[in-house]
């Protein structure tokens, strides 16, 4: 691979890393919460499905982490 | 165990150095077969947890603590390989040294080459706030260190910046790319598992054990042996200490001072080397009063 292409690839990766809290939230945290609720038999929290609830909680947490720069 | 009766009070500094090196040589050079068993046995154990849990032979709650201990145990064999302890460059078993490093470090989502480079920089610059990549672990107490390690590992934390700066100083952009590649691959695997219905397995077998393991390793390999981390220099940047978890519970780090002085001594030999060297270390003014 030529040097400029490599540098472009690195910049792309770095830009992606900037959004890791949001990506992590929707890629991992949401299914962890949803499947955790299903495993615990907590089916309809606040009248929603586990996935919708997980999207709200996990996505919201990810958004806060993205803005604040920290999860806890 | 008590200190060796060796009387060094009349020896000059060059004589102390010669004696120290003689002891170090006596405890080095042996093939560390225990480390090979540790590295590959531990990896096999961790990998076996996945089918055992997925196919219902082992409950996830039982696999989680095993996975956590297993992930905690990954670092030290790679650490031995980082220091060429399994085999020096140019020797017959050199490939095995590199294999141990590369074959196991992926479990802690760090390329072996990055671990080696940054760790050797830590040895060169231990406790230097500007140049020691592990300096973020330094804290007033163990609990403060745990909080700080967690804090500095957050997205806006200093730890990954210090590691990136260390690689940049060494002009190792290739290692930065490797590091990013490992992280991207790790997250891609986690996401794929999670959206395939194995989110809890991925969480309790890899993600959470890794978070706990990294805090444990940073606490015992970085904070404890360098505390209070206010001085630099061969005999002042590391100490011996007494761990509440004992020598095994602290992964042999009570004797880390010997490792910093003579990094080619295998981990399993550092306690014996320490007790032999102790009078010399005392004469050198090392911080060894706890042990």
What do these coordinates show?
- The complex is a heterodimer of chains A (72) and B (291).
- Chain A has three helices and no strands.
- By secondary structure, chain A is mainly α.
- Chain A has a domain at 19-68.
- In chain A, 24% of the residues are buried.
- By secondary structure, chain B is mainly α.
- Chain B has a domain at 31-232.
- In chain B, helix 1 (13-26) runs antiparallel to helix 12 and helix 3 packs across helix 9.
- Chain B is globular, with a radius of gyration of 20 Å.
- The termini of chain B are close together.
- In chain B, 41% of the residues are buried.
- The chains are: A mainly alpha (72), B mainly alpha (291).
The level of helicity of chain A is over 70%
Instruction: Indicate the mean pLDDT of chain B.
Output: 95
The largest chain-to-chain contact, stated as pair and per-chain residue counts, equals:
A-B, 26 and 24 residues
Radius of gyration of CA atoms of chain B, rounded to a whole number: 20 Å
Biggest beta sheet summary of chain B: none
Enumerate how many helices of chain B there are, as a single number: 12
Q: What are the low-pLDDT stretches of chain A, counting only 5+ consecutive residues below 50?
A: none
Distance between the first and last residues' Cα of chain B: 9 Å
- Helix coverage percent of residues of chain B? 55-70%
What percent of residues of chain A are in strands?
under 5%
Q: Oligomeric form of this entry? A: heterodimer
- How confident overall, as mean pLDDT of chain A? 87
What overall geometry of chain A do the principal axes of the alpha carbons give? elongated
The percent range for strand residues of chain B is: under 5%
**Would you report the number of β strands of chain B?**
0
Shape of chain B: globular
Record keyword descriptors for this entry.
heterodimer, A: 72 residues, mainly alpha, 3 helices, 0% strand, elongated, B: 291 residues, 12 helices, globular
């Amino acid at each position: 691979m030529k040097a400029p292409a490599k540098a472009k690839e690195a910049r792309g990766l770095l830009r992606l890393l900037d959004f890791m809290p949001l990506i992590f939230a929707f890629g991992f945290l949401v299914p962890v919460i949803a499947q955790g609720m299903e495993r615990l038999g907590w089916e309809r929290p606040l009248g929603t499905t586990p996935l919708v609830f997980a999207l709200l909680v996990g996505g919201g947490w990810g958004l806060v982490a993205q803005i604040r720069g920290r999860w806890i | 165990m008590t200190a060796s009766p060796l009387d060094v009070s009349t020896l000059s500094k060059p004589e102390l150095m010669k004696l120290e090196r003689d002891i170090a040589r006596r405890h080095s050079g042996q093939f560390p077969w225990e480390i090979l068993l540790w590295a590959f046995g531990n990896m096999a154990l961790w990998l076996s947890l996945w089918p055992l849990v997925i196919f219902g032979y082992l409950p996830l709650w039982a696999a989680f603590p095993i996975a956590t201990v297993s992930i905690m145990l990954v670092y030290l064999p790679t650490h031995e390989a980082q220091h060429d302890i399994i085999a020096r460059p140019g020797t017959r078993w050199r490939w095995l040294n590199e294999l141990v490093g590369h074959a196991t470090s992926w479990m802690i989502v760090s390329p072996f080459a990055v671990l080696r480079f940054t760790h050797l920089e830590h040895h060169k610059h231990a406790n230097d706030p500007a140049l020691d990549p592990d300096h973020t672990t330094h804290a007033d107490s163990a609990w403060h260190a745990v909080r700080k390690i967690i804090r500095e590992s957050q997205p806006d934390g200093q730890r990954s910046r210090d590691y990136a700066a260390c690689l940049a100083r060494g002009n190792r952009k290739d290692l930065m790319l490797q590091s990013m590649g490992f992280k991207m691959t790790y997250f891609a695997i986690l996401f794929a598992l999670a959206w395939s219905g194995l989110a809890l397995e991925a969480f309790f077998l890899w993600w959470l054990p890794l978070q706990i393991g990294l805090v444990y390793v940073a606490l015992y390999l970085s904070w404890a042996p360098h505390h209070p981390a206010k001085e630099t220099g061969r005999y002042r940047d590391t100490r011996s200490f007494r761990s509440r978890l004992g020598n095994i519970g602290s992964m042999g780090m009570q004797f880390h001072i010997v490792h910093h002085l003579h990094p080619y001594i295998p981990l399993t030999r550092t306690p014996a080397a320490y007790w032999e060297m102790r009078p010399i270390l005392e004469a050198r003014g090392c911080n060894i009063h706890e042990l």
